[in-house]
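User: quick one, sequence for these tokens?
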């Protein structure tokens, strides 16, 4: 198998916190920018630069009392701006790496990728402790970051579906690391035939074997595929800077060893189109471990060398 040649990397910040039950995820992208993520990636051999920072609407910053309908509107508008930034980067010959932000940004990220490839079939590998496949009928929280996968599969609110609806076919979606979810969202995925690999199976087979299967699923009869990585999919020892810490998750070493498999090309495989990393909260990070993991994963996925030195979240 040969490796895809690297494109110039467009770092796109998606500073969204309205989709979660806590707002601090909107601090993640600016913190990574201020900490020199682009310089660290350049030191690894990747041509990386920030092309956009999609920020929340400032007039809502001090409004913790926003209603559910207002929150949905904020998420939809943020997702629309993000989709535009992703589409622009891809049409300009750059490889988008989107850093968030809560996982509702997946609506904008993958809606933008789908637009850039003219709505051709798109696959997706979803690394996460959770399934994020709720609809309004099943969610216990009404938080949009728990609905983004359902939207991409064509289930959800009209304003979300207009941006990312049906961006991903169920036969081309594969979860890795799931271990905390509700019956309603799991039922939707089972009905649609989505492949879900829980942590027990990851431990039994090894992450590399699971990623190989996921790439085969996501690239089957598609024009490309992506990877979305929720940092709470990791064991908190490796990624403490998240709002929902779930024990017994993915480990740093095995992930960095497996990520290069995303860009390996073989007969019948479509190319990797974009990478998304979400749910980083710098205020909860310990010794910058989560921030360093973000940079190391991008380098590993895109063919950069080892990154030297420390990145501290501001």
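Assistant:
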């Amino acid at each position: 198998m040969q490796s895809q040649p690297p494109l110039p990397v467009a770092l796109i910040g998606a500073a969204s916190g309205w989709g979660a039950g806590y707002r601090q995820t909107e601090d993640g992208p600016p913190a990574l920018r201020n900490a020199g993520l682009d310089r660290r990636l350049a030191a690894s051999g990747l041509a990386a630069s920030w092309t956009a920072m999609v920020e929340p609407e400032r007039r809502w910053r001090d409004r913790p009392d926003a209603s559910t309908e207002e929150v949905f509107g904020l998420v939809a508008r943020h997702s629309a701006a993000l989709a535009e930034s992703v589409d622009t980067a891809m049409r300009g010959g750059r490889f988008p790496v989107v850093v968030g932000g809560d996982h509702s940004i997946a609506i904008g990220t993958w809606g933008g990728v789908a637009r850039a490839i003219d709505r051709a079939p798109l696959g997706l590998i979803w690394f996460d402790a959770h399934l994020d496949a709720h609809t309004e009928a099943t969610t216990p929280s009404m938080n949009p970051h728990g609905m983004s996968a359902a939207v991409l599969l064509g289930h959800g609110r009209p304003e979300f579906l207009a941006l990312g609806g049906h961006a991903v076919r169920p036969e081309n979606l594969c979860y890795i690391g799931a271990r905390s979810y509700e019956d309603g969202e799991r039922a939707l995925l089972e009905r649609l035939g989505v492949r879900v690999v829980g942590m027990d199976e990851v431990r039994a087979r090894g992450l590399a074997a699971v990623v190989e299967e996921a790439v085969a699923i996501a690239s089957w009869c598609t024009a490309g595929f992506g990877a979305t990585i929720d940092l709470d999919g990791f064991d908190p020892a490796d990624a403490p800077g998240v709002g929902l810490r779930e024990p017994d998750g993915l480990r740093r070493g095995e992930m960095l060893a497996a990520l290069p498999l995303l860009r390996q090309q073989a007969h019948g495989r479509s190319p990797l189109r974009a990478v998304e990393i979400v749910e980083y909260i710098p205020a909860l990070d310990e010794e910058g471990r989560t921030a360093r993991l973000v940079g190391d994963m991008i380098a590993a996925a895109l063919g950069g060398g080892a990154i030297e030195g420390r990145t501290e979240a501001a």
